[in-house]
Amino acid sequence: MSHPLLFDEIEPGLAFTTSGIVVTESHVVQFAGISGDFFDVHMDDEFARDAGFPGRVAHGLLCLAMLDGLKNRAATRFAAIATLEWTYRFHKPVLIGDRIQGRIRVLDKRATRRADRGIVRLQVEVHNQDGVLIQEGLNVLMVRAGARNEDK
């Protein structure tokens, strides 16, 4: 898809898989600095192992942010104006070195009072390199509607 999909071009059932990204130590450290979340399970291998993990665990919200980035640069993408809601569950830890990838499916859409926008609900999933479901949720987007500039 060469252009982001406008509201009228989006149909319930549309589904796609994003590219993937490997979660690095740099991602975790930088996210800790940005968010202020220096919780030991993210920063201290020994603490994480004592808690039952094989090593440090990436922040759940880091992986959600990475999913949003993967979604926004996917071959299929939306002419989004704003995110209105995230309803989200964290199922499994993401470890440094894991490769994550998103699966996106349009659940439904509805028009708004304004003709230049609509609301789209997306089912989102994050899977690791082994295909294991790591995170999942609902993303509600406000999406631009109307004719394309080149169509006018």
What does this entry look like structurally?
- By secondary structure, this protein is an alpha+beta fold.
- It has a single domain (7-151), classed as Thiol Ester Dehydrase, Chain A (Roll).
- The protein has helices spanning 25-35, 40-43, 45-50, 60-72; strands spanning 15-22, 80-90, 99-111, 117-127, 133-144.
- Strand 4 and strand 5 (133-144) form a beta hairpin.
- The longest helix is centred in the middle third of the chain and has 13 residues, at 60-72.
- The two termini are 20 Å apart.
- The mean pLDDT is 95.
Secondary structure blueprint with pairings:
Layout: E1 15-22, H1 25-35, H2 40-43, H3 45-50, H4 60-72, E2 80-90, E3 99-111, E4 117-127, E5 133-144
Antiparallel strand pairs: 1-3, 2-5, 3-4, 4-5
CATH homologous superfamily grouping: Hotdog Thioesterase
Radius of gyration: 18 Å
Report the uncertain regions. none
- Describe the biggest sheet? 5 strands, antiparallel
CATH class: Alpha Beta
Euclidean distance between termini CA atoms: 20 Å
Main sheet: strand order: 1-3-4-5-2
The CATH architecture classification is: Roll
Structural class: alpha+beta
Could you give the count of β-strands? 5
% residues in beta strands: 35-45%
Order of helices and strands: EHHHHEEEE
CATH topology: Thiol Ester Dehydrase, Chain A
The number of helical elements comes to 4
